Structure formats: structure tokens, C-alpha cells
Q: What sequence folds into this?
């Protein structure tokens, strides 16, 4: 059995989620390679040591460069703020190590391309944490569309709305740092773009609108000193897919009351499917041809007949959670590292997603349609 010794950089929300996923994937799946919690890096030695102890890593360091150089690290896992993704990933690739990086891959499409090119040139396996693509209900949506069950896709309506920045007193964080890229269009918009591409296909062009609603935020919780916010709080775009369908995508981190509205409707000539991650174990499907007076959407509950679910639970309707789909992502990564099916999305696909993000912003600024090929 191959061992993959993990070097984790960052131990916040996603660092904990990845750790959970490494542990869970090892327990519930028969993995072709086993992740081992080897080394954890964070901002300084004390923070890293405390996190390593809490999360079960063998060793720690306050210097991510030391983690990359460490001969006992086989996989570099980046769960640090966006501005660090590029320098860490390029250093890992230069060291010939596979990289598992959180989304969005980079600050912009040019940087994402540089990272994808470097990985391809070095022949290094890469993986990007667009975990919702591993939700069995999103996989089912893709299978239904591909099977032709809802006919030819004519419309995609997608949104990722949450409210974690809705309070104007919520402090400035790294998510607002323009050095790390755009605002919510990159933070949440990249997720719904990844789903649109995965289920419907490549996007050809967009016309976007972005808005910064809260232009000053406290520098820390409760602080009277404020810092100017330059990135978007809300973003919308009309989209045209290469396959001919049209649609819309939306992202907001100020959508008061919305906690996890990562939702989409896909309408075809013979039906519609709908998924909303506030109820992430359900897929709604409507097909034409139902008897008059009995027409309506059917709700399919996730169960062991769907991708990866049975490994967690033999009974349908018992529900997977956010961290479980991260474990499915880890299964796919371990499979790729053991020489099995390639991991998707890799850096190349994440660059394609980033191009759409950049196109929305470029279009909003120029007030015109932008072809993705222009980015
Ligand atoms: N896939 C998803 O569903 C999802 C969800 C949330 C966040 N993310 C992504 O994950 C990444 C991290 O987000 P988060 O919410 O976990 O952030 P966070 O602020 O909770 O954690 C970031 C961690 O990185 C550490 N860090 C900062 N600078 C560092 C440095 N120089 N060296 C080492 N460690 C450093 C911080 O101390 C902290 O432990 C981001 O890219 C974000 O977009 C993805």
C-alpha cells in the first residue's frame, strides 16, 4: 500500500476540513494510497505546533518553505489565503511534488495559467478543491444531462449566495485583499462557475455586473479604524455556453439570510433539474409527458445508488455533509496519485474557471460582452 505523506499549509476552516477528509477517506473507502498526516505549516512555530497537536499531524513548522523542502513530504496541500497559492504551488512544483490547492487557484487567470503550465512542464499531479463537484447529487445532475433525459439543455440559472459579510461591521479579512484576486466573484462565484462548466459545458462569453456595497470595514472585530474595500460584494453575469445554451450566474457574500445557497436550475427541452446545497442531499427533477393534473417535480434523495454514498452509509436519505464530500475529493486525489483516473479539476481546469471569473469582472468594468478567449 502506497503512503502519501501530507504537508498541510494553513490550519483554518479548510485546513481542518482537509484533515477530516484525509481521516474519513482512509476509514470509509478502500484507497489505493493512504494519506499520512506528516507535517503542518502555519504562520509561526507556536500556531503550527498547536494546530498540529489538535489535528494529529506528526510534526509542525512556522515556515511553509521548510515544509516543501522536507524530504518526508510527498503531497503539498495548500489551505492558506489565496495570495499564497501561487508562490507555494510554484515552489512545490519546482520540488517535483504534487499539489492539492484550495480554490480559487490564483489571483487571476494569468497567474493560474502560469501555475498550470509549470505543473504540466514538470509532470506534476495537481488538484483544486472545488469540492461541490464531488457532491453525489451534482454528479447525478451531470449524468442526467449527459444521458439526454431532460433533452437539449437550453438554460442554466446558478447562484452561490451566503451572508458571512452581510454585516458592514464584519471586519476586513484576507478575502478582501485585492492582491489575492477579486471578491465574491472569485470566492463563491468560482464554485458556481465550476458547476456550470462541469454539468453543462464550457462558457463562451459573459456580460457581467459587480458591486461593492460596503466600501469600508473595521480592520479587526470591534475596531474603530477602518480599511477601504476594493473588491466586489456581489456579482452577476449573463452567460453563453459554447454548446448554445444561455443562462446566468450570481454570487454574493452579503445575501442576508442565505447560508449556503449554492443552487442551480438546468432546463432542457424535455425537463428541468434543480439542486440547492442548503438541501445538498436532494435533486429535483421535472420531466415532460406527465399526466395532466399530476405534473410536478420529483425529489430524489441521495442514497447508496449514487456516487460514493454507499461507502458512508447503506441507507438512502441519511444525508452526507460538507466534510463528507471533501472526503470524496480526497478519494479521487489518492486514486490519481496511485496512478488511477486523473483528478479533476486540476490546475488546467481551474485556470479555465478563473478565466470566466476574470471575464465577468472585465465585462462589468468595460460594460460589454467579453469572450472567454479574450482573458
Ligand atoms: N472549497 C471550499 O469549500 C472552501 C471553503 C472555504 C475556504 N476555501 C479556500 O480555502 C483557503 C483558506 O480558506 P479558510 O477559510 O480556511 O481560511 P482561514 O482564514 O480559516 O485559514 C487560513 C489559514 O492559513 C494560515 N496562514 C496564513 N498565512 C500563512 C502563511 N504565510 N503560512 C502558513 N499558513 C498561513 C492561517 O493562519 C490559517 O490557519 C482559501 O483559498 C479559500 O478560498 C475553500
A:
Amino acid at each position: 500500500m502506497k503512503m502519501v505523506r501530507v504537508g498541510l499549509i494553513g490550519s483554518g476552516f479548510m485546513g481542518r476540513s482537509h484533515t477530516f477528509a484525509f481521516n474519513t477517506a482512509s476509514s470509509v473507502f478502500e484507497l489505493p494510497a493512504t494519506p499520512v498526516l506528516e507535517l503542518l505549516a502555519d504562520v509561526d512555530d507556536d500556531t503550527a505546533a498547536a494546530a498540529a497537536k489538535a489535528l494529529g499531524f506528526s510534526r509542525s513548522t512556522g515556515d511553509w518553505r521548510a515544509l516543501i523542502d522536507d524530504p518526508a513530504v510527498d503531497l503539498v496541500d495548500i489551505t492558506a489565503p489565496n495570495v499564497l497559492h501561487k508562490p507555494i504551488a510554484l515552489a512545490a512544483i519546482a520540488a517535483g511534488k504534487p499539489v492539492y490547492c484550495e480554490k480559487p487557484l490564483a489571483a487571476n487567470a494569468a497567474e493560474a495559467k502560469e501555475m498550470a503550465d509549470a505543473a504540466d512542464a514538470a509532470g506534476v499531479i495537481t488538484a483544486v478543491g472545488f469540492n461541490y463537484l464531488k457532491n453525489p447529487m451534482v454528479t447525478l445532475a451531470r449524468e442526467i444531462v449527459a444521458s439526454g433525459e431532460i433533452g437539449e439543455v437550453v438554460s442554466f440559472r446558478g447562484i452561490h449566495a451566503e451572508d458571512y459579510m452581510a454585516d458592514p461591521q464584519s471586519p476586513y479579512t484576507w478575502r478582501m485583499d485585492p492582491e489575492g484576486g477579486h471578491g465574491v466573484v472569485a470566492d463563491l462565484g468560482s464554485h458556481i462557475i465550476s458547476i456550470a462548466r462541469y454539468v453543462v459545458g464550457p462558457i463562451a462569453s459573459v456580460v457581467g455586473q459587480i458591486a461593492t456595497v460596503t466600501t469600508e470595514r473595521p480592520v479587526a472585530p470591534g475596531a474603530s479604524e477602518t480599511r477601504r474595500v476594493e473588491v466586489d460584494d456581489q456579482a452577476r453575469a449573463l452567460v453563453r455556453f459554447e454548446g448554445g445554451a444561455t443562462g446566468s450566474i450570481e454570487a454574493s457574500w452579503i445575501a442576508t439570510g442565505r447560508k449556503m445557497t449554492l443552487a442551480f436550475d438546468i432546463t432542457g427541452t424535455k425537463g428541468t433539474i434543480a439542486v440547492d446545497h442548503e438541501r445538498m442531499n436532494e435533486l429535483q427533477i421535472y420531466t415532460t409527458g406527465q399526466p395532466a393534473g399530476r405534473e410536478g417535480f420529483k425529489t430524489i434523495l441521495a442514497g447508496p445508488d449514487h456516487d460514493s454514498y454507499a461507502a458512508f452509509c447503506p441507507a438512502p436519505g441519511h444525508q452526507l455533509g460538507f466534510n463528507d464530500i471533501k472526503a470524496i475529493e480526497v478519494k479521487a486525489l489518492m486514486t490519481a496519485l496511485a496512478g488511477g483516473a486523473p483528478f479533476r479539476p486540476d490546475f488546467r481546469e481551474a485556470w479555465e474557471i478563473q478565466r470566466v471569473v476574470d471575464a465577468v469582472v472585465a465585462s462589468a468594468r468595460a460594460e460589454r460582452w467579453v469572450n472567454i478567449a479574450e482573458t
